[in-house]
């Protein structure tokens, strides 16, 4: 059933998509990012009058990625992103194919910075919001897992902090369904320093690879360094040499860290998946508990999954509930 919902239905929908002439429809205002797979622009959408973020995927790189999952019919980024409705996940409004055959996504424009910046600066924003950010990332990821997906590329680069200091997860280009064919050993796609040992060693994987990446991200948010102290520019093969060693305990680097937070992160970094948190929800539960104890005065609002799914503020402006325009401008 999950296979039909996650793979066959999106394939049929993709075949039905109409092509959009990007240059005719959008006015490019400025480039927001040059990812490894795409260009992202802040644009004005002439059709809706809105300022949005437009992600255009590189044709050849996307084809190469899809070829790595040949026979598995990996859903494309837009098919995954369009269904996500959570306050800590960027809202995708539409996806489709350009007249140049590139895949594109129209997203809410997030006015903010990548989490890599406060991680590197360890500034007042990071000091005062660290636990809130950690809980919000966990909420977004926990929701994501409950929709039946594995992210495979969670890292500070793929997390934005907006002007309200709220977390938004972005980039679902490497996402796969959490189903047996995609959990089988194979592709080592992701960002090397955040990859779980079982993924690097080409062993079977599941949602616990994201638990590991989440724990690496939390570790970095506290220490500004990676758990094995390795250089983030190292290649996968070089990282293989480090993954069998235990990571430096976070308490050695941050002596005043709360013990519950420290032990929760360290369990998330366990080399063997069976020694790690089984789910992001379990890890989040411990981190949220620590936050409530340490920051009882904080006005943080707990995000309920069910309520999160009701966030339909954009719905009225877009034509159908898949967010796919039936508009064609050749
Ligand atoms: N909705 C958005 N609002 C504002 N900026 C965005 C948005 N989406 C993406 N960006 C910016 O564009 C950059 C690249 O986006 P994204 O990570 O989705 O591309 P990518 O090609 O998949 O990148 P990579 O694979 O290198 O992580 C982001 O780091 C961010 O700075």
Automatic annotation (TrEMBL):
Binding site for ATP: 55
EC number: 2.7.11.1
Region of interest called Disordered, as start-end residue ranges on this chain: 295-330
MF GO annotations: ATP binding; protein serine/threonine kinase activity
Xref: Gene3D superfamilies: Phosphorylase Kinase, domain 1, Transferase(Phosphotransferase) domain 1
InterPro entries per the UniProt record, alphabetical: Kinase-like_dom_sf, Prot_kinase_dom, Protein_kinase_ATP_BS
Biased composition regions of type Acidic residues, renumbered to the chain: 297-330
Superkingdom of the source species: Bacteria
Domain Protein kinase intervals: 26-288
Keyword Kinase: yes
Matching PROSITE patterns: PROTEIN_KINASE_ATP (PS00107), PROTEIN_KINASE_DOM (PS50011)
UniProt entry keywords in alphabetical sequence: ATP-binding, Kinase, Nucleotide-binding, Serine/threonine-protein kinase, Transferase
Name the record gives this protein: Serine/threonine-protein kinase PK-1
Protein encoded by which gene: spk1
